[in-house]
Design brief:
20% of the residues lie in helices and 31% in strands. By secondary structure, it is α+β, with helices and mostly antiparallel strands. The protein has 2 domains: 37-159, Jelly Rolls, CATH 2.60.120; 168-198, no CATH class. Strands 1-2-3-10-5-8 form a 6-stranded antiparallel sheet, with no helix packed on it. A 5-stranded antiparallel sheet has the order 7-6-9-4-11. The termini are far apart.
Length: 198
């Protein structure tokens, strides 16, 4: 019995050996860390508007808020003017939990396995979870600005917006047309709108 307990203890990691530091502020050594690294006011106001979507986005990811680096959390704020939209996008590295803090919006995602849409109308105080890697969107339903606060299961959730992925690149328009079945003239128009070339 004593040998079994010793064997079990030998196999279990000791917390003091398994964790060599409490946190990791970006690339700073712990000695250079200050309380300011754990404080961020960047979500207090809306971010700059993103054309043509009529939405302002602010993020508290590790690049802007060093205190979250390595902790598996981050946040963002979306302010959608009437008619505003957060276009189809996905976070390859995190699940998102969205909380409506003002107004109302439709929020939905498309499952990768079934191509099924899961959407709900959300009002102030409502939550919706958006699984990691799934295409999702939000749009404002009302006549006033709608505001949402999102939290993520990663300090750097990553983001790829479908419109920018398709039209803000240098992939030739004829190739985009072939792989999307969109008319090449429409692809060129969208590339001009989103700053792409080709």
């Amino acid at each position: 019995m004593a040998k079994a307990v010793l064997l079990l203890l030998a196999l279990l990691p000791f917390p003091s050996l398994a964790l060599n530091q409490d946190f990791c502020i970006a690339d700073l050594p712990q000695a250079a860390v200050t309380a300011d690294d754990f404080y961020y006011s960047g979500l207090a106001a809306t971010g700059p508007p993103i054309a043509p979507f009529n939405v302002g986005l602010s993020s508290a990811f590790a690049a802007r808020f060093p205190g979250v680096n390595g902790l598996g959390i981050s946040a963002a704020r979306a302010d959608m003017a009437p008619g505003g939209v957060v276009p189809l996008h996905w976070h390859p590295l995190a699940t998102e939990l969205l909380l409506v803090i003002d107004g109302s919006m439709v929020c939905g995602f498309i499952s990768a396995a079934l191509n099924k849409v899961y959407a709900r109308t959300l009002h102030k105080g409502d939550l919706m979870v958006l699984p990691q890697g799934q295409l999702h969107y939000q749009y404002n339903l009302g006549n006033a600005t709608a505001v949402a606060l999102s939290s993520y299961s990663s300090s750097n959730p990553g983001i790829q917006i479908l419109d920018f992925a398709l039209f803000a690149n240098d992939l030739p328009s004829e190739v985009v047309s072939k792989v999307t079945v969109l008319d090449e003239a429409q692809v060129r128009k969208l590339k001009a709108m989103f700053g792409g070339s080709g």
